[in-house]
Amino acid sequence: MDDPRTLFDLTGRVACITGASSGLGRRVAKALAAAGAQVVGVARRAEALDDLKAEIGDKAGTVVADIAERAQIGTLVDEVNAKFGAPDIVIHAAGVNTREAADDVTPQGWDRTLSLNLSAPFFLSQAMVPAMKKRGWGRIVNFASLQTTRAFPGGIAYGATKAGIGQLTRAMAEAWSPHGITANAIGPGFFPTELTQAVFDDPERAARNADQTCIRRNGRMEDIDGPILFLCSKASDYVTGQVLMVDGGFTAK
């Protein structure tokens, strides 16, 4: 029997992470690099990406791009591939939440949310899958949410995309797992990121959310490390089409 610790070793793998300039995307990039992968961070903010590259070092590359611009996907993939070769792993951490009440949702806000949260993960994966098929190995990790299955105030557009991510993940698995490519999703609970800043700025609200979990606390950035390493490594060879909730048991209650 091989040493079980080698199951999580990502040496020799290349990972592309969208939304890598901040929050969970940034944490994921650092975790995968620490596990041996070469990582390519994709985001719109060049300065934040430069900071990430400086922190990780030579194992990191960056591409400044708006992944919601569908016509630019081909160019984006070419730029990503130019860093360390075609990725074995793609993680879709980029996202937006306009927090508009149902009566106030605008066509512009709706379209932007769907483009970034739902369309971009599909079309970027579709463009990267051919190289994974040639290797017979690949990992796609989408970012789901508590709102994949729960309705929150002001979350109708965001929730629709995250429910869609659940089904997109299953459909990706059905289409591509016969070629050695697993597709799964992580569903974070409340973590202290830019996307949830409004929640953590309200101590009473943050405390209520913590009480809703089984563990009785909100997420810490390090809580994402183990789950993402599992889904990106050999350890999850027989796991596909699943949404792994990393929420302290929030959705268990």
From TrEMBL:
Record has Nuclease as a keyword: no
One example GO MF annotation: gluconate 5-dehydrogenase activity
EC number in record: 1.1.1.69
Top-level taxon of origin: Bacteria
Annotated keywords: Oxidoreductase
This protein's record includes keyword Oxidoreductase: yes
Pfam family, one: adh_short_C2
One GO BP: fatty acid elongation
Family: Belongs to the short-chain dehydrogenases/reductases (SDR) family.
This protein's name: Gluconate 5-dehydrogenase
Protein species of origin: Ruegeria meonggei
